[in-house]
Amino acid sequence: MEKFIHTLIYSFFISLGVILGGTLIGSLGAVFCQDPPLKIMLDLAEKLKIWAIVSAIGGTFVAIKAIEIGFLDGQLSSLVKQFLFILSAFYGAQLGYLLIIMLAGGE
């Protein structure tokens, strides 16, 4: 159970880090290209959300295989765990997105 909780926490913070790091470092490219960095940050944060979730769960094939085992072999606990991992990663990505919006003063 402890490993499960740790993995949930890791998923959350990995996806949060992908959003924050990707947008902040990506906005440096906007500075070099003489584009507005805050607008680019908002665009990048929205585009990186799905990639943050995928990277946090360790790639799509592992998660899909675990979901397949959950459905076909009747292992409901495996299915629920994968859903919670994805949900945790989603919340991390969403928090990162909201922090970037607040930082950029958007919406």
Which residues form runs of ≥5 with pLDDT under 50? none
Q: What percent of residues are in strands? A: under 5%
Mean pLDDT: 86
What's the tally of helices?
4
Q: Structural class, please?
A: mainly alpha
Taking all Cα atoms into account, the compactness measure Rg is 16 Å
The secondary-structure element order is HHHH
* Intertermini distance: 39 Å
Principal-axis shape equals: elongated
| Structural domain count | 1
Helix content: over 70%
Q: What's the number of extended β-strand segments?
A: 0
- Most strands sheet: none
Provide a descriptive summary of the structure in words.
The chain is mostly helical. The chain has one domain. It has helices at 2-32, 37-56, 60-72, 76-104. Helix 1 runs antiparallel to helix 2, helix 1 (2-32) runs parallel beside helix 4 (76-104) and helix 2 (37-56) runs antiparallel to helix 4.
Name the descriptors.
107 residues, mainly alpha, 4 helices
Map the helices and strands.
Layout: H1 2-32, H2 37-56, H3 60-72, H4 76-104
Helix pairs in contact: 1-2, 1-4, 2-4, 3-4
Q: Could you give a short description of this structure?
A:
By secondary structure, the chain is an all-alpha fold. It has four helices and no strands.
